[in-house]
Structure formats: structure tokens, C-alpha cells
Write a structure and sequence with these properties.
The protein has 287 residues and is of the alpha+beta class. 27% of the residues lie in helices and 28% in strands. The protein binds N-(5'-phosphopyridoxyl)-D-alanine (PDD).
Length: 287
């Protein structure tokens, strides 16, 4: 008899819940996105949807009606009724017996959670420590794939060093991004960050940092940055949906600035806090 064991339970294969045969579990064969709300309004909804569509397309999941996904997300958000929440969602290629290739008629699986975010974020006050870590991910980091083992390993290594984030560097010693965040340096009043490409995720927060820079008249430079250069920067900060802008005060053993979140970072943080409100100035008009 074909069977499966789930923890202690022995189950005939014919009775197994397909959730256990999700290709997301077997292969990380799926993509996800994370958006958030501020005071009851989802921020940058269309940006996240566009990136999700891109990820789906790039891994060849072609059967998704994105309009339906939009509706599901909004419906879940309304039902949860949490003012400051994180919305996580993923689509996997579907459930089937484990086999690397898949049948053309496989049906995708959708999963979503709406959870609380603490607001205001307590770690923003002090900023965070980060550490460097080899980037040993695959060559399509522009796809928001469920394959996050290298990211998870880097994050854990940071945690073991009492750091909030691992800053990944490639084989040339250049920083790509954080294990789960975009990375920025402030050098001579300019904001410097890695150019977009297959080596990093197209961060939504990064897009708004660029727009804010334009609006404030701060030069936004897209170029590679070594770990040593970053340690000598005037300020460092991270960008991620769940925390928006987060100052960095220590990189490995190097104290950044005067160990406090720097003034340019604060300016971006404050401006960001203004644009996430629906009534605020629409910076996207300036793209
Ligand atoms: N991570 N780079 C990586 C590798 C990320 O995982 C993330 C976000 C970012 C920032 O992207 P955005 O500004 O669009 O949130 C950059 C999410 C939040 C996560 O995996 O939970």
C-alpha cells in the first residue's frame, strides 16, 4: 500500500491531504510577496502586485488571474480589520507527487496571512547592528521565490552574532542586499545602493527611497559598494516593507557615525512616514 507518515500518523496515500504534496514544500516552487498597511490603508499595493506578477511570470506560473488575487488580498485585509498589519501571500505551482517536472494541467495553490505589526516599531529608535555574510544565493534574486534557505541561514548567522540583519556580499566583495532587506549607504550626502538586476530583489521600499531622494533633492547613486566602503560611510540604513527605513549603527565591529541613527536616515524615515498615509503627496507622479 502506498502511504505517507505525517509526524506520528500513518496515512494511506490516497487519503493524504494535498497540502503535504505542495511543490512549495518539495522544491520551493512558488513565489510570494509581503505588503503592509498603515493606519488601515495598504501601502504600495500596486507595486507589490506588479512584482508578484513578475515573479509568477518568471517561473512560468501562467494560470493566475491576478484580478482575483487582488480581490482575495483586499477581502482578507477587510475581514482581518487590523490597522497596522502585514499581508503575506504566496502561490505555489500546485500539489502533486514529488517529481521535478510538472504536468501542464497542475493547479496552483494560494496561501495568505494577515498578521499584526507593532506600531510604532521599537527598534527604530536605536537603530540596529548588522554583520557581513557571503551571498551564496542563486542567480535570480530578482524573483521573490520561496527558496529562501540561503537567506534564512544568513539571518540565523546574524542572530547568533546579536545582529538584526546579515548584509550579503558577492564573490567580488560587493554588497548585494540584506538577507531580507534592501541596503543603503549615505556617503557625502548622497544615498548609494546597488543597481537593480538579477542579484537583488526589486525592493518596493527602495523605489520609494529613490522617489523621496528625488523629492528632497538628495542624489541617489546606484553603484556597487564594498563592505569596507560601507563601514566607512557616514550613515547606513535598511529598507524593507515591514520596517520601512531602519537605521544601522554598527556593521560587524565598526560603529557607524556616532552610534546613533544619522540625520539623513532620520529625514528619509520621517518623509517615508508621511508618504505612507493615503492623503499624503503622491510621489509616484514624479517617476
Ligand atoms: N523581504 N531584499 C530581500 C532579499 C528581501 O527579502 C526583502 C523583503 C527586501 C525588501 O523588499 P521590500 O522593500 O519590497 O519589502 C529586499 C520580505 C519583507 C520578506 O521576505 O519577508
Amino acid at each position: 500500500m502506498e502511504l505517507a507518515i505525517v509526524q506520528e500518523r500513518i496515512i494511506p496515500l490516497s487519503e493524504l491531504d494535498p497540502v503535504y504534496l505542495d511543490r512549495g514544500i518539495f522544491f520551493g516552487d512558488g513565489v510570494y510577496d509581503v505588503m503592509r498597511s498603515y493606519s488601515g490603508h495598504i501601502f504600495a499595493f500596486d507595486d507589490h502586485i506588479a512584482r508578484f506578477e513578475y515573479s509568477l511570470r518568471e517561473i512560468g506560473i501562467t494560470t493566475v488571474d491576478i484580478g482575483l488575487i487582488r480581490e482575495k488580498i483586499i477581502d482578507a485585509f477587510n475581514r482581518a480589520s487590523i490597522d497596522d498589519c502585514m499581508i503575506y501571500f504566496h502561490i505555489t505551482r500546485g500539489s502533486a507527487m514529488r517529481s521535478h517536472d510538472w504536468d501542464d494541467d497542475i493547479e496552483y495553490n494560494f496561501f495568505l496571512t494577515v498578521t499584526n505589526l507593532i506600531s510604532p516599531d521599537p527598534i527604530k529608535k536605536t537603530g540596529v547592528a548588522v554583520c557581513s555574510h557571503e551571498d551564496f544565493r542563486w542567480k535570480r534574486c530578482d524573483i521573490k521565490s520561496l527558496n529562501l534557505l540561503p537567506n534564512v541561514m544568513a539571518k540565523r548567522s546574524a542572530h547568533e552574532k546579536n545582529c538584526f540583519e546579515a548584509i550579503l556580499f558577492d564573490s567580488d566583495g560587493n554588497i548585494t542586499e540584506g538577507s531580507s532587506s534592501a541596503f543603503f549607504a549615505v556617503i557625502d550626502g548622497c544615498v548609494v545602493t546597488r543597481p537593480l538586476g538579477r542579484e537583488i530583489l526589486s525592493s518596493v521600499t527602495r523605489k520609494y527611497v529613490e522617489l523621496i531622494a528625488k523629492d528632497l533633492g538628495v542624489t541617489f547613486i546606484e553603484r556597487s559598494l564594498t563592505v569596507d566602503e560601507a563601514k566607512n560611510a557616514d550613515e547606513l540604513f535598511l529598507g524593507v516593507t515591514t520596517r520601512d527605513i531602519l537605521g544601522v549603527v554598527k556593521f560587524d565591529s565598526t560603529v557607524i557615525g556616532d552610534a546613533k541613527v544619522g540625520p539623513v536616515t532620520r529625514l528619509f524615515e520621517d518623509t517615508y512616514a508621511k508618504i505612507v498615509r493615503p492623503t499624503c503627496k503622491d510621489l509616484s507622479a514624479g517617476i
